[in-house]
């Protein structure tokens, strides 16, 4: 069946869609995770429990109103996966006296920021990412909860001569990560 990926899911997989097999939505998602295990935390709250932040549609209908992960699917069906769409960059501030730019970014997970940094040529060394003439460090913060929606948050620091350029790049990636 055709599986369409949107926003950050598309960024991670580096494709707009995949052809995957499975008799149920859950089985198709298992095949997806075999190819892209880094999507596990975004798709599921716990084993077998679809995350409330993710929207999964079969032929345009939300699986939550069908049979959930047990919803039967066939080769002609289309599965659409939408990542969390709340959050985005809250903005970098800086530079401070040490030349460091800081931000709290919402709606982007640590694995996704790491994937962006890798794609942009950064290399991780001892908890810090080296990005040419800049460095990046980040850590998870407690999630922001609004009603039933939980969005991840990261504290991000960027320093070095090219810090502003990297802060802008990360801010743009975070806004994309948030939808």
TrEMBL record:
SUPFAM superfamilies hit by this protein: MoaD-related protein, C-terminal domain, MoaD/ThiS
What is the protein name given in its UniProt record? MoaD family protein
Q: Which CDD domains match?
A: Ubl_SAMP1_like
Question: What NCBIfam families does the database record attribute to this sequence?
Answer: moaD_arch (TIGR01687), SAMP1 (NF041918)
Concerning Pfam families, the annotation shows: ThiS
Gene3D superfamilies of this UniProt entry?
A: 3.10.20.30, Molybdopterin cofactor biosynthesis MoaD-related, C-terminal domain (3.30.1370.80)
């Amino acid at each position: 069946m055709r599986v369409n990926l949107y926003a950050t899911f598309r960024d991670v997989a580096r494709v707009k869609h995949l052809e995957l097999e499975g008799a149920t939505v859950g089985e198709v998602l298992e095949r997806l995770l075999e190819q892209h295990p880094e999507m596990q935390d975004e798709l599921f709250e716990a084993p077998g429990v679809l995350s409330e932040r993710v929207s999964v549609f079969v032929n345009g209908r939300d699986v939550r109103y069908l049979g959930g992960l047990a919803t039967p699917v066939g080769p002609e069906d289309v599965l659409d996966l939408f990542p969390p769409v709340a959050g985005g960059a809250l903005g970098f501030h800086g530079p401070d006296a040490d030349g460091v730019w800081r931000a709290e970014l919402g709606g982007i997970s640590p694995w996704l920021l790491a994937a962006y940094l890798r794609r942009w040529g950064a290399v991780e060394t001892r908890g810090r990412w080296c990005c040419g003439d800049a460095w990046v460090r980040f850590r998870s913060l407690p999630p922001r909860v609004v009603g039933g929606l939980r969005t991840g948050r990261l504290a991000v620091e960027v320093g070095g001569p090219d810090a502003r350029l990297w802060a802008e790049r990360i801010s743009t990636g975070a806004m994309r990560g948030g939808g």
